[in-house]
Design brief:
By secondary structure, the chain is mainly beta. It has one helix and 23 strands.
Length: 385
C-alpha cells in the first residue's frame, strides 16, 4: 500500500473510531501528543502518601511513568520508561502497572518490588463521585497551538497495601482518600526543550503567578459524601491582574454546583514556597459566599517533579531512554531550598479541607505554585516553579 494506515489492534474491533486511522495512531503528528494519568492516595492523618503517573507518547514511541511515596519530608521515587512498540495498549513499564478494573469506577495502581527502591504497593481506587470533565486547555505560542488538552478528574477512596523498607502498611477505604485524573492531547513540556526554535518566554520579572489544583473528598456528619474541585490561576503585577477559576462542588449523582470565583488567602513558606494553609473565599455561580479552609497536614506530599513534571535532573516526559529504563532516588529531606528547586513547587500536598456552608470536612491533595513576587505573602521576585 502506498499510504498504509496504522497497525491493527484489538481495539479496532469496537465501533468507537473517530478518525480514518487505527487505534495504533493518533490524529496529529505532533511529537507532544500525550495521554497521561496521574493519581495519589493518602492516609487521612497525613502520615503517608503514594503517587502514580503514566504517560503514553505515541509519536515518540515512548511510554513512561513513576511511582512514589512521601512520608513527612522524605520521598522515594521509582521511574520507568520503555519503547512503546510493539505493545501500545499495554499499560505496564517494568515494575509500574496501571489497570482499569471497572471503567470510570475502579482503577488499580501497582508498583512491584524492584531493585531501585525498597518500595512496593498495590492500591485500588474506588469512586465516591463520578468523573468530571475540566475546562479544555488551549494555549498558543505565536502561530502554534502548544497545548490542546482534555482532562477529567475523579475523587474516591483507596484500599490495598504498601511495603516500605520491609514494613507493610494497610490501606482501607475508611482511612485513605484517593484522587486521579486522565488527560489526552498536545501537551506542554514534553521532551527536551528544543534548541533550534525561538525561546519560549518565561514569566517576566515583577509578575506573580499563583495557582492551585485541589480535589477533595468531603463527608458530612450524617455520613453523606460529596467532592470539591478547587482550581484557580492568578497573574498579577503593578496595575494588572488576570484571574481564572474552574471549580465546583461535585455530587455522587453527577450533579454539580459551579464556583464562579475564588479569592485566596493562602500562606507559603518563603524558603521553599511550600503551601502552609489558609482560606479560599469562594463565590458560587448564584452569588452565594462559600468560604473554604485549607489545612496542611505536615510535610507529606509527593513532589511531581521527581515524576518529570517540569523536568528533573535534565530529563523530561516522553524522552527516549531505550527499550526499558528504570531509575529513581530516595531524598531524605525535600524541604531544603536546594531540593525544593530541584523538585519544583508542584506537589500533592496532603490537606484537610473544611466547608462550613456545605456541612462537610474532608481530605485531598492540593497542588500549589506561587512564583514571582507576592510581597503581601513575604515572597520575593523568584521566578522558579
Amino acid at each position: 500500500m502506498t499510504n498504509p494506515p496504522g497497525t491493527l489492534l484489538a481495539a479496532d474491533e469496537a465501533f468507537t473510531h473517530q478518525t480514518t486511522e487505527t487505534f495504533a495512531t493518533v490524529a496529529t503528528s505532533d511529537p507532544a501528543w500525550t495521554e497521561k494519568v496521574c493519581a495519589m492516595a493518602m492516609a487521612r492523618d497525613g502520615s503517608l502518601q503514594i503517587g502514580f503517573g503514566l504517560g503514553k507518547y505515541t509519536n515518540r514511541n515512548v511510554m513512561d511513568g513513576y511511582a512514589a511515596l512521601s512520608r513527612g519530608k522524605e520521598q522515594l521515587t521509582v521511574r520507568a520508561s520503555r519503547r512503546l512498540a510493539p505493545e501500545p495498549t499495554l499499560t505496564s513499564i517494568g515494575p509500574i502497572h496501571y489497570e482499569v478494573v471497572e471503567p470510570l469506577r475502579k482503577i488499580r495502581f501497582r508498583l512491584e518490588p524492584n531493585d531501585c527502591q525498597p518500595l512496593a504497593f498495590d492500591w485500588l481506587f474506588e469512586h465516591a463521585v463520578p468523573p468530571f470533565l475540566e475546562e479544555r486547555t488551549h494555549l498558543r505560542a505565536e502561530y502554534r497551538v502548544m497545548s490542546e488538552l482534555v482532562r477529567y478528574h475523579q475523587t474516591g477512596t483507596a484500599s490495598g497495601w504498601i511495603e516500605l523498607d520491609g514494613e507493610r502498611f494497610e490501606m482501607t477505604p475508611d482511612t485513605w482518600v484517593s484522587t486521579r485524573d486522565h488527560s489526552w492531547g498536545v501537551r506542554y513540556d514534553v521532551g527536551t526543550p528544543p534548541t533550534d526554535t525561538e525561546p519560549r518566554p518565561g514569566i517576566p520579572p515583577g509578575f506573580g503567578f499563583m495557582m492551585i489544583w485541589c480535589p477533595a473528598l468531603m463527608e458530612r456528619e450524617d455520613g453523606s459524601r460529596y467532592a470539591l474541585h478547587l482550581h484557580f490561576t492568578r497573574v498579577q503585577t503593578t496595575g494588572f491582574q488576570q484571574k481564572m477559576t474552574t471549580a465546583r462542588v461535585e455530587h455522587p449523582d453527577g450533579g454539580e454546583e459551579l464556583i464562579a470565583e475564588i479569592e485566596p488567602e493562602l500562606r507559603f513558606d518563603p524558603t521553599n514556597r511550600r503551601l502552609l494553609g489558609g482560606k479560599l473565599n469562594c463565590t458560587m455561580a448564584d452569588g452565594r459566599e462559600r468560604p473554604i479552609e485549607i489545612q496542611v497536614l505536615g510535610d507529606t506530599g509527593v513532589h511531581l517533579g521527581a515524576g518529570l513534571y517540569f523536568g528533573f535532573d535534565g530529563h523530561h516526559h516522553g524522552e527516549w531512554r531505550g527499550e526499558l529504563w528504570v531509575d529513581g532516588e530516595r531524598i531524605a529531606d525535600c524541604t531544603t531550598p536546594e531540593q525544593a528547586r530541584r523538585l519544583h513547587q508542584i506537589r500533592d500536598t496532603a490537606v484537610r479541607v473544611v466547608d462550613p456552608v456545605g456541612g462537610g470536612a474532608g481530605f485531598g491533595n492540593c497542588q500549589p505554585i506561587a512564583s514571582g513576587p507576592w510581597p503581601e505573602l513575604g515572597l520575593g521576585d523568584e521566578d522558579w516553579m
